[in-house]
Write a structure and sequence with these properties.
mainly alpha; about 85% helix; single chain; about 100 residues
């Protein structure tokens, strides 16, 4: 059975990834094509909160599971790339 911190990190990893895609591919076109600036404010706030939680839970999982710094950096850098968190989802599932 996976540790609770890894399970929490797995959830926030996916949520943060979806919020990033929502911001990039839905909210930003709404703002720049249709002029709905509020879409970016809402999606940006949501993504910002989820990214902060992502960083906190990444640290907790790293401390608990004693991941290497290389693994930790892969998770962090992948969160900055669109669709990157879905690549790391496979890696997280391997930590059981």
């Amino acid at each position: 059975m996976r540790n609770n911190s890894v399970k929490n990190f797995e959830f926030i990893n996916s949520a943060e990834g979806y919020s990033y895609l929502l911001l990039l591919f839905i909210a930003m076109p709404l703002k720049y094509i249709l002029g709905f600036a509020i879409a970016v404010k809402i999606a940006g706030m949501l993504h910002g909160i989820l990214f902060i939680l992502f960083c906190i839970l990444l640290y907790q999982a790293w401390e608990e599971k004693k991941w290497s710094q290389k693994e930790n950096m892969i998770f962090f850098i992948a969160s900055l790339i669109p669709f990157g968190t879905f690549y790391t989802k496979k890696i997280i599932k391997s930590y059981e």
